[in-house]
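Margin note: ligand = magnesium ion.
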Amino acid sequence: MDTFMTIRAYGDNVDEALKSAEEKIKYLESIFSVTIDESDIYKINNSHGSTVEIFPETAEILGEAVKMCEKTDGALDITLYPVLSAWGFTADEFRVPASSEIAGLLEYVDYSEVSVDGQSVTVPEGFQLDFGAIAKGYTSDEIADDLRENGVKSAVINLGGNIRTLGKKPDGSLWKIAVRDPFDTSNDLCVLETGEISVVTSGNYERYFEGDDGQRYWHILDPSDGFPADSGLVSVTVIGESGLYCDALSTALFVMGKDKAVEFWRKNQDFDMILVTDLHEIIYTSGIENSFENLTEMSAEVIDSD
Ligand code: ADP
Ligand code: MG
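Resulting structure:
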């Protein structure tokens, strides 16, 4: 998953539980990776339209992923890989593709063409999938379950900034989770006090390159035009029960921008969020009002359900 991962677990049997978690991560990486030969995703991406048999975990994440693509009206699209490759985000060989090249590749981008039937999946010729926007969230949920099954009641899982806690701190108090200030990543924007939860941030400062034109191009693309999502948001943090849900939404809400993200939250209200705009405004939802403290100089506005 191309990132650093840390798991901190407390209690008896921790060594064994951590070992099991590490094996699980390696296993998920081996079936989800776009680059590992013989991974499920590799097989799908080289299937030329034929049906591929996949492992249960791949079927599960794929089913959930397609639902999230639908729910976000395509702001999340797991078939974006051909366009991500053209920008070089998949191999760190960055370039700005011509508009005509992107337009051509967008013919192969449409999550509704992915058909999953049990453990069989079919995508049209030329289509390619990538779980970059959701794999860490899904993995954090799987690791939390795995730790729990191994008797761990208290843990913090940090998969490259995707935070997933298990239970409360060993002394029964709440966890403190810092959210970074996207304009000054050595500083905190706020510190959330919470029990068992997922906290996932997507930002345009995490992976980007500078073009010959001096412009910044980042790794979250708008599937409607194939260009870096320029929605006025600099970072999106999603707080909720499921890592997969939060990870999918952090990417999708970043693409949607402030107004659509607020509308989406009002309609669903099964998560909380913190948006930071390029005008240095913070917008956060009422569910975290009591634990939110603005540690920056930016203005902060709380959003209510109506
Ligand atoms: P990070 O990986 O930095 O935590 P995200 O969870 O937002 O950030 O995922 C970004 C990754 O998802 C990109 O590197 C790319 O592989 C993929 N991606 C970018 N834009 C989209 C999109 N609109 N829909 C689905 N996947 C995307
Ligand atoms: Mg994401």
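The pocket of adenosine-5'-diphosphate (ligand 1) is lined by residues 76-78, 80, 84, 89, 130, 132-133, 161, 202, 206-207, 219-221, 223, 247, 250-251, 255 (CB under 6 Å).
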